[in-house]
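ok trying this again, last paste got cut off
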Amino acid sequence: MLLLPGEKHTSMGRNKEALLLVIDRDEYQIFDQQNEPLLHEESAILEENEDALKNIFDQATKKDGVALDIQIRNTEVLTRHLSLPASTEENLYEVIQYEMDRYTPFNKDDVYFDYKIEDRNNEKELIKVLLIVVKKEILAPIVNAIEATNVHLRKIDIVDSENPDRNLKDINFFRANNEINRSKAASNKWLLIAAAVLFVLTGITPIMMNYIQINKISSELESMEGTVKKVKQLQSEYQKMQDQVGYLVRIKENNPSIIEMLNLLTKVIPDHTYVQRLSLESGQLSIQGVSASASELIAIIDQTGLFGEIRFAAPVTQSGADGLERYSITANIKSNTQAEKS
């Protein structure tokens, strides 16, 4: 088991009566109770894949209902660490949903999300919250296939194969459907029962007045607009400070790598080569200039180990009477992991 990849290792320890669906980048796999692959698609789970999922679920549940475990690679989800006033904890789901387009690039209607409270600072009256977001288009076809079959979703885990300590267990992306609606249905049921009992005991007039008042209070609580406004007021000053600190942290994180690249290029580029224009933008290096031997430059830049896909962006030409060659080179900046492998 220890020799297996992270997602297989996790699947080996699961209940044998459950299917396992693994989502990783542009492909997904389904494993049966014996960890044998039932389906492997090298395309994202889109609406047209629903029929294939339904067929597999139907075959698996011919005799009895089967549970489904889902593992999603951490690259498929967006996580954010939030610091919120402690007063928001009671209605945290509604607060996060209301502010989704501020915390993430997405609208609340386009995503499933869950959260975990990581820490509480009683002195500053703050809570630290981990927000986990996945786009609906990834999970919606799976949900539709589950609803059309006898398969029932048991759990969703977020898997980081490079750092298993960061795995997130039992993520509830359907909190709104599973908890809030169920809670409302239960509340309404008991409200109706209580109303019927009180009607018998005391008569219709006071009960109707109470019922109207209860509905009014429930509507006010569900709207949550007042609470959110208070949250915004409490967060305003704190958010400004957080943005300033984040800006300084980003400068500190980004500058060393850029300085390292420029320093290394300065060392390796020959004395007979002149750089007239250099830019680093969107993960791409662009260099233009003149050289006594432009053909040597690609091999020299490649030796740094920091760049990939190094190529001439335009044909090498003579610059003039000085005999130098005019060149234009582009290269992609490697990630830290790629650079270390190189």
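PB: full thing came through this time. The longest strand covers residues 111-121.
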